[in-house]
Design brief:
alpha/beta, Rossmann fold, 7-stranded parallel sheet, two-stranded parallel sheet, 7 helices, 9 strands, binds nicotinamide-adenine-dinucleotide
Length: 256
Amino acid sequence: MELAGTSAIVTGGASGIGAASARALAKRGARCVLIDLNEELGEALASELGGLFVKADVADPEQVQVAVDAALEMAPLRAAVNAAGIGTPGRTVDRDGNPLPLEKFEKVIRVNLIGTFNCLRLAAAGMAKGDPVDADGSRGAIVNIASVAAFDGQIGQAAYSASKGGIIGLTLTTARDLSAQGVRVNTIAPGLIDTPIYGTGEQADAFKAKLGANVLFPHRLGTADELASMVVECITNDYMNGETIRVDGGIRMPPR
Ligand SMILES: NC(=O)c1ccc[n+]([C@@H]2O[C@H](COP(=O)([O-])OP(=O)(O)OC[C@H]3O[C@@H](n4cnc5c(N)ncnc54)[C@H](O)[C@@H]3O)[C@@H](O)[C@H]2O)c1
């Protein structure tokens, strides 16, 4: 998939993996529409990249449709990256015997799983409007960001693991559905990636160094650029479809 002269949608595009993906796609010539709730960071990056920021909740159909329409107005929509995500921890039953409030579980599922599917379906419908770009009939490519927590979820990650497992579950199914439109779907499951998700400052740095020591090799957190490189590969390699790829330095997460 050639990206020059196309548009792309990146959710969670204001920060971390989404922001690095948007930079990488823009480098290849895509005009990026960043979807995020963080207006300040989103606006700043969009103007740096010559793209557009749309403040939207990924799980809101109307708000996301505004972003898809904006992308289609700029250029044919050929790529979408679903990187928006949250991770509210909480044990299934806490030390005092209280069960996890169901609203907490629902919120994570809503943003991570329903939000991803919402953006995937609306972006795919936008891509389907374009003409095929090659003899294969390709119209676009979508990359979802799951997590290794889908496979080895840690204590307190039931909602997060379920949401990311759901994304992996829908990867092959949506790739099959969208084969009719010439749209490919892949998912990346990152390990520990150095993004603002871990906070900033001395304490956060010490925490990240400790986390990094458990990575098989190299003994450090991954960078957002290393993740973005795989995002670009999934989009531009026309034979990549229906797969989930761990990008995690070989780590297998322990229970805690
Ligand atoms: N950093 C890691 O170690 C790691 C590991 C595995 C998976 N992931 C996943 O990678 C993705 C990106 O994470 P990151 O580390 O870059 O985090 P981040 O916090 O830097 O970025 C996430 C972005 O998503 C946005 N967002 C949150 N809820 C939203 C909503 N409802 N609608 C629109 N935007 C919303 C946030 O405002 C933020 O800008 C997430 O899905 C996360 O679960 C991250």
